[in-house]
UniProtKB/TrEMBL annotation:
EC number: 3.2.1.131
Top enzyme category: hydrolase
Protein name: Xylan alpha-1,2-glucuronidase
Domain Glycosyl hydrolase family 67 catalytic: 145-464
Length: 716
């Protein structure tokens, strides 16, 4: 009878509700190979774990859940002949202590997992310096089980390479999300602090499982209200919920808060009362949340208030807040995403121009947070020139996980491939090999305070991210935040195995699909270095014709500059000279069309339509070829997905299938409308391989969607 019930349970967990996506990559699916299952069951029978701390309690809960799910087994927690030992190094008996050089090699959040043989039976030992390290060790151990790895000779030593690994939620207090495509905000402010939803706990679990250790709860376009006492109590409730998962809470601080909620007449950072107001506010926050992480600030950017309003600098503003937070060990993340309409310079240059002169003048607890790309998270941008240009200042990377410019809710694009591409770019700032990853992890300049942020793609959708494959982008961001040198391919394999199936017949083709999805989106949206060609406002769909907006640098025509001679933005010395912000090695190579990588061609040069590219064909032909390649790649994704039916639950299969067909339609829409639009300038024939467009350019230009999701609420 017992067996029958167990069998039924297994059936329900692997074929029933398991794949509505809620469980993310923590599916803990039944290990169905009998041999592996037996081996795993033996090793996880008795667990030694001191459950005195709140983190250890979380570990215990997770182990129970995982073992029940994967092995239908209830582990025993006991010190008697344990087969799995989870203990801090300081608490280990002498004979189990790792060698000193191993201890020295892990940091406070790192861990070691080892298969040991004690009294002739194999055991697993997970050890770390802190409870948080143990938590990460346990999640990594569980991942080995999820991926059906051999445990007989486990030996994993790992530590995060970046200190502050944060999600940035662009969530508003009314629960709308700026550029959010997965429903409303998961923070139910109205019912906080009293209602702690199950989702908050699972959110924390998911983040801890990939090593994320902080979260900024509110939008960079912030409301000052979040700093009021009643909201701070709500923030406190979330902080209390996340703490056992090693996650600190941060807030975006609106620079003008002293006026809006403090009753002061100014927010001038050099004004004594203003400074006192922030000091008091920090004291108030830390009384409620002793481990509060600090503030993120968007200042003097896109109309947000900031120190410039009072004739003060970014340093004056950042340092004022840093001073208020320093006694409590808090940090300030000051965003470098600034561009001003008073200085009509190439927008790609402005952050560098404003921030480089401040290098070395920020207080020790300030990080400057730099976006991935000097324009704005485009499908492909060269790395931001600030990386490598401020050696005396900790620079944080800001990636965008939500797909503002990459197909919103409907396109499958594996972002870790984009993140990897940027992280591996060479800045040459300290000679060859000075990659962006080394700037961000601090190894290049021996920077101690290091950070990385990902703009979250999470909402209250049942599966958290809307598109089932958008979960991979959350997962992948976390993994790269832990180790910016990880390969996108490894991340894809892990995620696919944990989420869907470890069968190589699934993992192999799907890994290629994920990796190739990156180039596909560039090809059908912005090939050869084109950028900022999206429809106005909501940023969904093509809009190369967008012009005459409030500011030139909000239009597409400003960026592609197509005319009868050619297309592209000249950023060399004959143009905006943005290229000079890069190291001489890059400047030299990219100053000539012939030696500029084709993927950045039109980013740096205005190129004649008939210019011959490396394949001997002219620019117009190549542009068309890229658009066509992008569409064909989506067709390929669809046929690969069709083969995957046996490995994926019906619901997830169907949803992805339908989303891929939307992606195909939209890629065709990009191809047709962009090529028709540019043909007006090239006046060249459409190559044969481009199918006839189903509509006229006029039709494409007339498409409007005032209700497209993700629109900036203030633009409604
Ligand atoms: C742009 C978004 C806008 C954000 C802004 C930012 O369109 O909604 O507020 O960046 O990052 O990408 O501050």
């Amino acid at each position: 009878m017992k067996k029958l019930i167990l069998g039924l349970l297994v059936f329900v967990s692997s074929y029933g509700i398991a794949q509505d996506g809620y469980k993310l990559w923590l599916q803990y699916k039944t290990v169905d190979n009998a041999k592996i299952r037996e081996h795993y069951s033996e090793l996880n029978e008795t667990i030694s774990l001191d459950t005195n701390s709140s983190i250890a309690k979380v570990i215990q809960k997770e182990l129970k859940l995982a073992m029940q799910g994967m092995l239908s087994q209830n582990p025993r927690f006991s010190e008697e002949n344990p087969t799995l030992i989870i203990k801090k190094i300081a608490d280990l008996p002498k004979d189990l202590k790792p060698k000193q050089n191993l201890i020295d090699s892990i940091n406070d959040e790192g861990f070691n997992i080892q298969t040991i043989t004690s009294k002739s039976t194999p055991k697993i030992l997970i050890t770390a310096k802190t409870d948080q390290g143990l938590l990460y060790g346990v999640f990594t151990y569980l991942k080995q089980l999820q991926l059906h790895k051999d445990l007989t000779e486990l030996s994993i030593t790992d530590s995060p390479k970046i200190k502050k690994r944060l999600l940035n939620h662009w969530d508003n207090l009314d629960r709308t999300i700026e550029r959010g495509y997965a429903g409303f905000s998961i923070w139910d402010w109205h019912l906080l602090p009293n209602l702690i939803k199950e989702e908050y706990i699972d959110y924390a679990r998911a983040n801890a499982s990939i090593g994320i250790n902080g979260t900024v709860l509110n939008n960079v376009n912030a409301s000052a209200y979040i700093l009021q006492e009643d909201y701070l109590e709500k923030v406190q409730a979330l902080a209390d919920t996340f703490r056992p998962y090693g996650i600190q809470v941060y807030l975006t601080a609106r620079f003008s808060a002293p006026i809006e909620i403090g009753g002061l007449e100014t927010a001038d950072p050099l004004n004594k009362e203003v400074r006192q107001w922030w000091n008091n506010k920090a004291d108030e926050i830390y009384k409620l949340i002793p481990d509060f992480g600090g503030f993120l600030v968007k200042a003097n950017s896109e109309g947000q208030p900031g120190p410039n309003n009072y004739g003060r600098s970014h340093v004056d503003g950042a340092n004022m807040l840093a001073e208020a937070l320093a006694p409590h060990n808090g940090i300030v993340m000051w965003r470098a995403f600034v561009y001003s309409d008073e200085k009509p310079d190439d927008r790609a240059k402005q952050a560098y121009t404003e921030f480089v002169p401040f290098d070395g003048t920020f207080k020790d607890n300030v990080l400057v947070q730099v976006k991935n790309g000097a324009i704005d998270f485009q499908p492909r941008e060269p790395f931001h020139p600030l990386f490598g240009a401020m050696p005396e200042t900790p620079l944080m990377m800001e990636f965008q996980i939500t797909q503002e410019y990459l197909g919103g809710m409907s396109h499958l694009v594996f972002l870790p491939k984009i993140f990897e591409e940027t992280l591996q770019e060479d800045t040459f700032s300290q000679g060859k090999g000075s990659t962006v990853a080394k700037v961000v992890d601090g190894s290049l300049t021996d920077t101690q305070l290091t950070g990385i942020a990902g703009v979250s793609n999470i909402g209250n959708a049942r599966n958290w991210t809307g598109h089932p494959f958008a979960q991979a982008n959350w997962y992948g961001f976390g993994r790269l935040a832990w180790n910016p040198k990880l390969k996108a391919e490894t991340i894809a394999q892990e995620w696919l195995g944990m989420t869907f199936s470890t069968d190589p017949a699934f993992v192999k083709p799907m890994t290629s699909l994920l990796l190739d999805s990156r180039e596909a989106v560039v090809d059908y949206m912005t090939p050869l270095g084109l950028h900022h060609m999206m429809a106005e406002g909501h940023h969904q769909g093509p809009g190369p014709w967008v012009k005459d907006l409030g500011r030139e640098d909000w239009t597409s025509v400003y960026y592609h500059k197509a005319d009868s001679l050619g297309i592209g933005f000249d950023r060399t010395a004959t143009g905006s000279d943005a290229l000079s912000q890069y190291a001489p090695e890059i400047e030299k190579a990219y100053s000539k069309i012939e030696t500029t990588p084709e993927k950045y061609l039109l980013w740096f040069h205005h190129v004649p339509w008939n210019y011959e590219l490396k394949n001997g064909k002219n620019l117009w032909y190549n542009l068309a070829r890229h658009y066509q390649d992008g569409v064909e790649e989506v067709e390929k994704m669809i046929s690969t997905w069709e083969q995957m039916k046996p490995y994926v639950d019906e619901k997830a299969y169907r949803k992805t299938e339908m989303l891929l067909s939307i992606q195909l339609k939209e890629s065709q829409w990009w191809r047709a409308s962009c090529l028709l639009y540019f043909q007006q300038f090239s006046k060249m024939e459409m190559p044969d391989f481009i199918p006839e467009a189903p509509h006229t350019l006029n039709y494409y230009e007339s498409i409007r969607d005032p209700y497209a999701p993700g629109i900036k609420p203030s633009w409604d």
